[in-house]
Design a protein that fits this description.
Helix content is 53%, strand content 15%. The chain contains 12 helices and 10 strands. It is of the alpha/beta class and 417 residues long. The chain has helices at 2-46, 48-53, 57-107, 114-158, 213-220, 243-247, 264-269, 278-290, 313-327, 343-354, 392-397, 402-410, and strands at residues 174-184, 187-198, 202-206, 228-233, 236-237, 250-254, 331-335, 361-366, 377-382, 385-390.
C-alpha cells in the first residue's frame, strides 16, 4: 500500500514539475519587481518637493503606475499558477483515494463499510467550512488597517490643493509680493514681506538659518498659500492661476538634486520629451553642453546608481541644471545649489548659470554669499522679514547691516575691493 502511494506521488510530482518551475520563476520575478517598485516609491517620496515645484509629479507617477501594473500582472500570474497546482492536487488526491478503495474493496475483496466514505466526505466538507471561517477571521484581522487607510484617504481629500481657473501663460513685468505673511498656528514664519521679482533678472535671497528663505521658496512655487497679503503676477492675483500650469514654467535645482536610479539620458529628459526621437537626444546633449557637463555625453545610457552614487557633487548639480535648461524654464530657482560644492565645482556651476542670465528669471536662495555677488538685486531676510534690499555692493557698503556681518564672517567682498 505504501509503495503504491509513493509511486502515485512520484507520478503527480513529474506531472506538475513544469508548473512548479514556472511558479518558481514567477516568484523570483515578483520579488525583483517588488524591490524595483519599492525603490521607485522611495525616490518618489524623496523627490516630492522638486516634483511638485516643477509640476513633474505626473511624469514619475506614470512611471510608477507602469511598475505597479507589471507587478500586479506578475502577482496574478503567480496566484494563477499556485491555484492550478492546488486545483490539480485535490482531484488527483481524490482519484488516488478512489483507486485505493477500489483496489482494496473490489479487487482484493476487503471489507470496508460505506460509512467510511460518508465520514470522509463529511470530513472534507467540514474542512472547507473551517477554511471559510478562517478567511472571514483573517478579513476581520485586517479590517482595522483598511479603516485606517480609508480615514487617511479622506483626510487627504479634505486637504487638496486649491487651484485657480486661469491657465498661466507667463509674465511680462514682475511677480510682486505685497505684505505677504505666513503663519503656522500661532507661529509667524514670514511677516509683511514686500518685494518684486522682475522678469529676466537674477535675484538673490540671503539670510541666516531660520530667516524664512525656504518658506519664501514655498510661496513662490505655490506649494503653500500665504495667510496674509497677496502675490501678484503682472498685477493679477496669483490665486487666480492654475498652479500646475505655473509650475510647468519653473526649473528647480535644490542643494541635494533629484537623481534617479536610471540612465543619465532619462535623468535629464525625465520622460518629458519623446525618448525615441533623435531630436530629443540632440536637445539633451545641447543642454549638457550649456550646463558644463559635456564630458558625460558618452555615458548617456549609463545608469547613475541610487541617488547618483556614481557621480561627484559637482556632476550631480550640473546634471540637475542641464535638466532644467532642457525645458527652458521661465523661472529658475536655485535653493542652496552650490553650498555643498568645493570652490572649483562652484565656479563651473556659476559659469553655467551665467549663460542663462537675462534669458530667464533666476532666483538664488543662498547661505553662501559668493553665490549672489553678481545678482541684479539681493533681498536680505531675517526673522521672517525683508530687512534690506539692493545690489551686493550697496548692501556691503552698510557696515552695520546684517548683510555686511554675514559677508565678513564668510570673507566675501564685492569685486574690486
Amino acid at each position: 500500500m505504501t509503495l503504491k502511494i509513493f509511486l502515485f506521488g512520484a507520478f503527480v510530482s513529474v506531472l506538475l514539475a513544469p508548473l512548479v518551475r514556472m511558479s518558481r520563476t514567477t516568484s523570483r520575478n515578483l520579488t525583483l519587481e517588488a524591490g524595483d517598485l519599492q525603490s521607485q516609491i522611495i525616490e518618489y517620496i524623496q523627490s516630492i518637493v522638486y516634483l511638485r515645484a516643477t509640476n513633474n509629479v505626473g511624469v514619475l507617477f506614470s512611471r510608477l503606475s507602469s511598475s505597479i501594473g507589471r507587478l500586479g500582472n506578475t502577482e496574478l500570474k503567480n496566484d494563477f499558477l499556485h491555484t492550478i497546482v492546488k486545483v490539480i492536487n485535490e482531484p488527483v488526491a481524490a482519484l488516488i483515494l478512489a483507486f485505493l478503495i477500489y483496489q482494496n474493496v473490489v479487487v482484493e475483496s476487503k471489507e470496508l463499510t460505506g460509512i467510511m466514505l460518508l465520514v470522509f466526505a463529511l470530513h472534507r466538507l467540514l474542512a472547507r467550512m473551517l477554511m471559510l471561517q478562517g478567511e472571514w477571521q483573517r478579513f476581520n484581522a485586517f479590517l482595522g488597517s483598511l479603516e485606517k487607510v480609508e480615514n487617511t484617504l479622506s483626510e487627504f481629500e479634505g486637504n487638496l490643493e486649491t487651484r485657480g481657473h486661469i491657465s498661466y501663460r507667463g509674465f511680462n513685468e514682475a511677480i510682486r509680493f505685497e505684505g505677504v505673511s505666513l503663519k503656522f498656528g500661532e507661529k509667524t514664519i514670514l511677516s509683511e514681506v514686500s518685494l518684486d521679482i522682475p522678469k529676466n533678472k537674477t535675484i538673490g535671497i540671503v539670510g541666516p538659518s531660520g530667516a524664512g528663505k525656504s518658506s519664501f521658496f514655498n510661496l513662490v512655487t505655490g506649494l503653500i498659500d500665504p495667510t496674509g497679503g497677496r502675490v501678484l503676477v503682472d498685477g493679477e492675483n496669483f490665486a487666480s492661476f492654475d498652479k500646475g500650469s505655473f509650475r510647468q514654467t519653473i526649473g528647480f535645482v535644490p542643494q541635494d538634486p533629484v537623481i534617479l536610479n536610471d540612465s543619465l539620458f532619462n535623468n535629464i529628459n525625465l520622460w518629458r520629451l519623446p525618448t525615441e526621437e533623435k531630436a530629443t537626444e540632440e536637445k539633451v546633449k545641447n543642454a549638457m553642453v550649456s550646463a558644463g557637463c559635456e564630458r558625460l555625453i558618452p555615458q548617456l545610457d549609463s545608469f547613475l546608481g541610487e541617488r547618483g552614487i556614481r557621480l561627484s557633487g559637482g556632476e550631480r548639480q550640473r546634471i540637475a541644471i542641464a535638466r532644467e535648461i532642457l525645458i527652458g524654464p521661465e523661472i529658475l530657482i536655485l535653493d542652496e545649489a552650490t553650498s555643498a560644492l568645493d570652490s572649483q565645482s562652484e565656479e563651473i556651476v556659476q559659469a553655467s548659470l551665467e549663460l542663462l542670465r537675462n534669458k530667464c528669471t533666476i532666483l538664488i536662495i543662498a547661505h553662501r554669499l559668493s553665490t549672489v555677488v553678481d545678482c541684479d538685486i539681493i533681498h536680505t531676510f531675517d526673522a521672517g522679514k525683508v530687512v534690506a534690499s539692493g545690489t551686493f555692493k550697496e548692501l556691503y557698503d552698510d557696515k552695520f547691516s546684517l548683510f555686511r556681518t554675514l559677508c565678513d564672517k564668510q570673507g566675501v567682498r564685492p569685486d574690486g575691493i
